[in-house]
Amino acid sequence: MVLWICYGVSYFGLVYSAQNNAPSESYFDLFVVTGMVQFFVSLSDWGWILFLVVPGYIAYLGILFAIKMRSVKPSESTAVPDSEEEKKPVRKGFRATKAIKK
Question: Residue 92 domain-assigned?
Fold first, then answer.
């Protein structure tokens, strides 16, 4: 039953992508993996293990996304100032040098 659902999702996704000139790599990959699983299940009772590639790939993408989000540092424009001195706007030009304390 799961294989037929995956075939339906991937097939109709491929058709929709072809009609709208959208990328269809993930639908094609799911279609091929489902076909390979169905072939190997006909040869062995352990062929369904190949289907674990799909959630494994989703987990891999999730881990990559989490790593990227942790490594992104907030830009200085969105950083919250710590002290009152940092909250004051600095005037440009000659007078701005007087505001700097040594």
Answer: no
- pTM of this structure: 0.54
Both tokens assigned to 89: 């706007």
Residue 97 — φ and ψ, nearest 5°? -70, -25
How is residue 55 written in tokens?
Answer: 């959630």
Structural domain including 30 reads 2-70
pLDDT digits (tens, 9 = 90+) for 32-90: 888 888 898 889 888 888 888 888 888 999 999 999 888 876 665 555 656 665 555 65
Residue whose entry in the numeric block shows the structure tokens 């891999």: 60
Closest by CA to 27, choosing from 38, 37, 40, 17, is 17
Instruction: Name the domain count of the chain.
Output: 1
22 within domain boundaries: yes
